[in-house]
Design goal:
Structural class: alpha+beta
Distance between the termini: 28 Å
Strand content: 25-35%
Number of domains: 1
Helix content: 25-40%
CATH class: Alpha Beta
Order of helices and strands: HEEEEHEEH
Shape: globular
Largest sheet: 6 strands, antiparallel
Oligomer: single chain
Number of strands: 6
CATH topology: Aspartate Aminotransferase, domain 1
């Protein structure tokens, strides 16, 4: 499955000044990692955001957000955001910031 290269470039621009961010092709798409932890990614046109278990229910109530069920089983703490949910730069930045905040609470890998 191909992923949205335009979204990949937008994400790269948002995190380019941050140290320790890496990319990895996963799930047939692209994931960005901070300190070895996946925090956002792209599957097709959907943005994958790792919000963590405490923010999960609240994230699902936001417009254009759905359960991440890539494997057929919902992955709690992760959501898919459809393109309308990140079309504005400020919306995309919010998802990036929230996801980075969560993985910042995890131990280094």
């Amino acid at each position: 499955m191909a992923y949205d290269e335009g979204l990949a470039e937008r994400l790269r621009e948002l995190v380019q000044e941050r140290p320790g961010i890496t990319e990895k092709k996963m799930f047939g798409g692209l994931c960005l990692l901070a300190r070895g932890h996946m925090f956002v990614g792209i599957v097709g046109e959907a943005l994958m955001a790792r919000v963590g278990p405490d923010a999960y229910a609240k994230a699902l109530r936001r417009p254009h957000v759905r359960v991440m069920d890539f494997t057929g089983k919902p992955m709690k703490g992760y959501v898919f955001v459809d393109p309308r949910g990140y079309e504005e730069d400020r919306d995309l930045m919010r998802w990036v910031e929230e996801s980075l905040k969560f993985v910042g609470t995890l131990p280094d890998k």
